[in-house]
Amino acid sequence: MKKVYIETLGCQMNKSDTEKMLGMLDYLGYEEVKELKNKDSADLLIINTCSIRQLSEDKAFSRTGLWGKWKKNRPNLKIAFCGCVAQQTGEAVFKRMPYIDLVMGTHNINEFPDLVKRIEAGEKVCAAGETLVDEKGFEIKRAKGVNAWITITEGCDNFCTYCVVPYTRGRERSRAPEVIIKEAKDILAQGFKEITLLGQNVDSYGKKGEYSDWNLARLLRELNALEGKFRIRFTTSYPTDITDELIDTVVKSGKICECFHIPMQSGSSDILKKMNRRYDKETYSKIVKKIRERVKDVTITSDFIAGFPGESEKQFQETLDVMKKLELDYSNTAAYSPREITIAAKWEELFLPEDIKSERLVRLNDQNKENCINSNKKYIGRELEVLVETFKNHKGKNILTGRTRNNKIVHIPHHENIVGEFVNVKIIGAKTWYLKGELNK
Ligand code: SAH
Ligand code: SF4
Ligand code: F3S
């Protein structure tokens, strides 16, 4: 069997694309190797890239540099450059890295088997077109484990002024409900215990295109009705697209977990406007409060950007204040990174110096840690259901790790490997990033 090594640098969408590619490669007779020791470890090397920030883009290029050196001594080695950076750079990649055999953007993923055959035959191929290639029904090769993802919406039409995703993933579209439900059934038949519905903006499921009598709430109810014990999650939510129907569905459906990931990005209404987000501080706060009132033990997480162009110290303070006030349980944080094609990248005169951005990011992270520990402490003494995901030996002790319904990570000392089981756990301690638990007999 031929061997493939694939490295994934991006978000869950990007990881999900990797699983798609692995499914197609399986059909082409490739076996995945997880470790890349030297030039002979695999016949095909793939990098699935991300361009959300400059740092992630730089990583894509630096990783492939080493692979190019290997190729000098092994000319048959094939190298593929895929994902969001590939979608944007297209053929220019060949100029920068002449040793690349295939450049494939996000729109062409369904052509992947044909593209691989062409590079196997010695061709150099670039497929990073503007038009989407339709799904062809290849089975996805999901990473073994407890959790599986299903993409429900692709692309994004929001055009937040800092963000490259609408340019790398194209226009927003919803996948057919019957295809999603079938994938869910297959996943459950394979023994997975948790399904996460993915999209840049899952709340707008069905809004555009042919499935307008569907929405996220209806899709969730259909999945909730499938047989068996399993959990359902969904991410990411756009604040103002969260409907009362969706909140009610989460409350009433036993399998849907009590979690909302609702990126706020900034606590300043003026900055939000400049980001082209369609809400202000008050609107976002109201939504969070409403969810907290209605959904017991809910976890609400967010994303924030420090140092957006023109952000004043006072406006940044508003971000810290709102994070604290709303008791957001966890937030992803990043310093603003200009992305060439986006609107905000043209506001150079408003860019903040690197040291100010980094210093604000440190304070954002400190506030985040404070929120996390406070959120975790609330659960000490409680008994919670945990889905066990891993069993590892840590410093001579066997430890199970799993997550509660509301997505808290729990470490539980235990002698036996019971990965994939639902267990009741007494929470006996709280750290910043996880809870400590004891198995209830
Ligand atoms: N669709 C999701 C976010 C997808 S991108 C949403 O609308 O919230 C993931 C996160 O990356 C964003 O929430 C944002 O916080 C961050 N991000 C995006 N572009 C960025 C940039 N240019 N600089 C820094 N962070 C960025
Ligand atoms: Fe990017 Fe905004 Fe779309 Fe999220 S909603 S992917 S931040 S453009
Ligand atoms: Fe995801 Fe990065 Fe692309 S965050 S959508 S892989 S730019």
Strand content: 15-25%
CATH top level label of the largest domain: Alpha Beta
State Rg.
22 Å
What structural class do the secondary elements suggest?
A: alpha/beta
CATH superfamily of the largest domain: Methylthiotransferase, N-terminal domain
Q: Count the E strands.
A: 19
CATH topology of the largest domain: Rossmann fold
Count of separate structural domains: 4
CATH architecture of the largest domain: 3-Layer(aba) Sandwich
Poorly predicted runs: none
Report the sheet with the most strands, covering strand number, pairing sense and barrel closure.
6 strands, parallel
| End-to-end Cα distance | 46 Å
How is the largest sheet built, in terms of strand order? Answer: 2-1-3-4-5-6
**Distinct helical segment count:** 13
In helices, the fraction of residues equals: 25-40%
Principal-axis shape equals globular
Q: Mean of residue pLDDT?
A: 95
Small molecules bound in the structure, each named once: S-adenosyl-L-homocysteine, iron/sulfur cluster, FE3-S4 cluster
